[in-house]
Structure prediction request, 237 residues.
Amino acid sequence: MLTEQASLQDITVRTDNVWKVYMLGGVEYAALRGVSISVRRGEFVAIVGPSGSGKSTLMNLLGTLDRPSKGEVYLDGVAVSTLQGDELASLRNKVIGFVFQSYNLVPYLRVIDNVVLPLVARGASSSERTSKANALLDYLGLGDQKQKKPNQLSGGQQQRVGIARALVNDPSIILADEPTGNLDTKTGQAVMELLRQISHEKKVTVIMVTHNLEITNYCHRVIFVRDGVVEKETVSQ
Prediction:
């Protein structure tokens, strides 16, 4: 297991015997049943499984958008259960960048204004916001698109704006939910290559949930989830 191979200092995401149990019509339903995973710094990992497998529930727990019924989630060595309210929101804002299938851009804001939103929430100065957003948009090949609105961009460009927004706070973790789901094959491949490049060059841990096995070829490792448990893991050659 990865936990045995890598030091704790090298691990950015870890779950320890995580369960998530819901009450449905008075009956308990376990969406996750004792899931334990570890992901290294700079690793690009895919979580794959059929509908109802628990992969989206696991992603919500990793993103601190929900809490486990039992077990613990660790982000950068911090036990999430020990945090409440503002502390939890602060950790989420500093440590995690989110990339969504539907981009989730604010339609009436310019590209650069969409990118700086996490920095506004953090209270960064105007000069810092502008400097970081400009640098990221240039890095992602969007230097000539900064003043446009999202509806003036292609789907691939919008997703790159979403990736820039996810990176602007210098997170150690990016969580990507079906990041190529709304893209054609060629554009999706370009986005996957970009995520792989980011994990390598910026040493950011990228965890992606997907049902598309083809795009997992870009990942270092694939975790297969079924019926709320980790069924197997494979490592790319």
Remarks:
- The longest strand covers residues 11-24.
- Confidence is low (pLDDT under 50) at residues 1-6.
- Helices lie at 2-5, 55-62, 85-95, 111-122, 126-139, 155-167, 185-201.
- The two ends are 17 Å apart (CA to CA).
